[in-house]
Fold:
Amino acid sequence: MKIALVGYGKMGAALLKCWTKSEPPTHHFTVIDPAISLDQPSGGSADMLTFLHAPPGEAARFDLVIAAVKPQAVDDVLPQYGALMAEGGFVASIAAGVSLRRLKALTGAPAVRIMPNLPTAIGAGVSGLCADAEIHPPQKAAIEALMASTGATLWVETEDQLDRLTAVSGSGPGYVLEIARAYVAAATNLGFSEADAFALVMDTLAGTVQLAKSSPLSLTELRDSVTSRGGTTAAGLEALNGDGELDRRLASTLNAAHARAVELS
Structure:
């Protein structure tokens, strides 16, 4: 496939790094960004990667145009690419809040919305995908294969579901990092150095997540398996969520993020 990646900010660069790891390369990427350095290291085959400051001439044709620009730039940028679509081409966007209808109106092409999250940068992300009715199975398979190289994928049927997914996994790394930050601060206050507190917390989180993903037990069962009556974990859990405040705060967190996603749409 001939793919145009429009925008080369942090997320665009992270995606491209994952997409160009395959050997031999399976796609040709043209990266367009007015601020880009044209001698960017590719991480892949040089003849399958081109960097440009502006859209190429009308002789160019792309099977897929991926918008990786800020939402407020979409209306100005995407119309330039409608004439550059190959027959059967389609558009995908990671711009939050830009609807499928808007993407199609700007390009005249069938559209897919993608909601990646921060760990995509290391190939451990979660990406939600939502397609309009005109996207064909081969197109869905192509975009899913691209995003699968960056982590897990989940197709949703409606844009409302994508807004809800945004609240859970799209914004989720922010919640996890804030919880981890507070956890590290608490460990430091308990007397550990910042470096030791960071290591203890990060390794505890990573190991627990790995255990939970590999265990047939539910999260509640796993939690109970490490909680002895009258023990240290029980005391800590009572302080953490004995009154149910943690449940309420997390529910409020997701509801607030979902409401904002709806506003942006």
About this structure: The chain has a mean pLDDT of 93. Strands lie at 2-6, 28-32, 49-52, 62-67, 85-93, 111-115, 125-131, 151-155.
